[in-house]
Amino acid sequence: MRALRGAGAVLLMVLGTLSFVVALVLCVTIILLPLGIALGFLAVKLWKRAMTLLLPRQADVRRGLRKGFKVKEIGDAASDITRRGEKLRKKARKKVRHLATV
User: Fold this and answer.
1) What is the distance of C-alpha 63 from the center of its chain?
2) pLDDT at 92 (0 to 100)
3) How far is 73 from 58, CA to CA, in rounded Å?
4) If DSSP codes are grouped into helix, strand and coil, which group holds residue 29?
5) What's the pLDDT at 68?
6) Which of 18, 50, 53, 71 is the most buried (most CB within 10 A)?
7) Signed CA dihedral, 4, 8, 9, 14: sign only
8) According to the model, what pLDDT value does residue 69 have?
9) Are 9 and 50 in contact (CB under 8 A)?
10) Mean pLDDT, 10 residues at a time, over the chain (102 residues)?
């Protein structure tokens, strides 16, 4: 799937580059200036779409992050932080209860 997305991105880049060159040529001639500007904007949109195809999808990034937390050291550090946070919350609740009764 990545190879297909990469091939599509390369094709869009080539098409965007060619349309940008044609847009520059059209902008040189004063009569065709509006057409050249519009074609230039189209070339930028094509390049933008090509870049989004090259980047990983949001679902792939999330899946990779979840797999990253299965690494032992990262998982241990996350669980330590969770335990410490629970202890601090319990202490804070006790202090608030004590202050509320006084």
Assistant:
1) 14
2) 84
3) 25
4) coil
5) 56
6) 50
7) positive
8) 55
9) yes
10) 87 96 92 93 95 84 64 66 82 82 72
What single DSSP character describes residue 31? T
At residue 79, what is the residue type? S
Q: Kindly state the tokens that stand for 37.
A: 């500007």
Residues ≥6 apart with Cβ < 8 Å to 101: none
Q: Which residues contact 40 (CB under 8 A, 6 or more apart)?
A: 20, 23, 24, 27
For the chain, the domains span: 1-55, 58-102
| Rounded Cα–Cα distance for residues 101 and 38 (Å) | 72
Distant-in-sequence, close-in-space partners of 75: CB < 8 Å, separation ≥ 6: 69
56 Rama sector, left if φ>0, alpha if ψ -120 to 50, beta otherwise: beta
